Each structure stands twice: as structure tokens, then as C-alpha cells.
UniProtKB/TrEMBL annotation:
Listed GO MF terms: magnesium ion binding; NAD binding; oxidoreductase activity, acting on the CH-OH group of donors, NAD or NADP as acceptor
Domain Isopropylmalate dehydrogenase-like: 1-164
UniProt keywords, alphabetically: Manganese, Metal-binding, NAD, Oxidoreductase
Keyword Zinc attached: no
Names of the cofactor(s): Mn(2+); Mg(2+)
Native source organism of the sequence: uncultured organism HF10_3D09
Family annotation (Pfam families): Iso_dh (PF00180)
Protein's name in the database: Putative 3-isopropylmalate dehydrogenase
Protein's UniProt keywords contain Thylakoid: no
PANTHER family hit by this protein: D-MALATE DEHYDROGENASE [DECARBOXYLATING] (PTHR43275:SF1)
Length: 175
């Protein structure tokens, strides 16, 4: 909201300064209120979104609905030398100890991390494991027999984790 807040004006100036050294990368602008609307209507339009932490947090929570909710959505904060991966939902402390939270967002965060590490180190074996983990999650969801409450099922976190781990083990043995 560089049209209203000073912090966003600084963010915009900094973005423009950094973007100037990456002229080959196409850039576009949008205010968060309009952006959230565009994101839900045409998510395929976006490859990378650069935004402030607060707006990014809100936008990722909203966008998680496009892939099944916050129980499914992984998040990556990626810099030049370091990266940090976590579920969009964070630690979900209100559900601690209940064995009901969907573990797929955490598993997808691990998959995203493996993919980043593999590409960073040019490691084809690690990239293969990343793809196999992604495949195992996709197969689990397609099967649909073991889903947590957020996806309309009654399975526990442990049940879903074991199901995906078993699929992963089978695929890894096939390698």
C-alpha cells in the first residue's frame, strides 16, 4: 500500500532499486487489496511475489485455500545463501497434543526444502527423492481413504503420516 503507508513506500523504493540490477526480470505492481482478488481469480499468473512480511503472511493464508487449505500449504523464505521452510499454518499451538492436524503442509515443506537443496547443490539423487516425496503425497490424496478433519475425513495426523511414509518407502525401494 505504497499509496498510503510510509513503510510500504520504502519497500517500493527498495524493490525498484534492487530490480534495476535485474532488468531481465519482468516486474509488476499491485496494492494488496487488489492483489488478493487477482490471486484468487488467476493464481496461475504469478510465479514469484515480492511483498512485505505482513501482506505476504495474509496472502499466503488466503492462497492456501487454492490448494486445500492451510493444512496443505508449504512456505519457503529463500535468500541468496540460506532458506527457511515451514507450513503456512505455523506451529498451530491450539492443536498441540491432539493428533488431528494435517501433516501434509509439514511434509510439503520438507519436499520444498529437498528440492531447493537439490537444485542448489546440483544433486540429481536428492532431486529424485524430492519428486518421490511429492508423488507419495499426491498418491495419498488421490486415494482419499485417510484424510484429516480439514479435508473432510477422520484420520489422525499419525495415520496420514504413516500412509505417506509407507508410499514413500515403496517408491524409494523401487529406485
Amino acid at each position: 500500500k505504497s499509496n498510503v503507508t510510509r513503510g510500504c513506500q520504502l519497500f517500493r523504493r527498495t524493490f525498484d532499486a534492487v530490480a534495476a540490477s535485474h532488468a531481465h526480470v519482468e516486474k509488476d505492481y499491485g496494492y494488496i487489496d487488489a492483489f488478493t482478488q487477482w490471486l484468487t481469480r488467476t493464481p496461475e499468473f504469478y510465479d514469484v511475489v515480492v511483498t512485505s512480511n505482513m501482506f505476504g503472511d495474509i496472502a499466503t493464508d488466503l492462497a492456501s485455500v487454492l490448494q486445500g487449505g492451510m493444512g496443505m500449504a508449504a512456505s519457503g523464505n529463500i535468500g541468496d545463501d540460506h532458506a527457511f521452510f515451514e507450513p503456512v499454518h505455523g506451529s498451530a499451538p491450539k492443536h498441540a497434543g491432539q493428533n488431528k492436524v494435517n501433516p501434509i503442509a509439514s511434509i510439503n515443506s520438507v519436499q520444498m526444502m529437498l528440492d531447493w537443496l537439490a537444485r542448489r547443490s546440483n544433486d540429481d539423487d536428492l532431486l529424485s527423492v524430492s519428486k518421490i516425496l511429492d508423488q507419495s503425497v499426491a498418491e495419498h490424496l488421490k486415494d482419499g481413504s485417510s484424510l484429516t478433519y480439514d479435508l473432510g475425513g477422520t484420520a489422525s495426523c499419525t495415520d496420514v503420516g504413516i500412509s505417506i511414509a509407507n508410499r514413500l518407502a515403496v517408491h524409494l525401494k523401487e529406485r
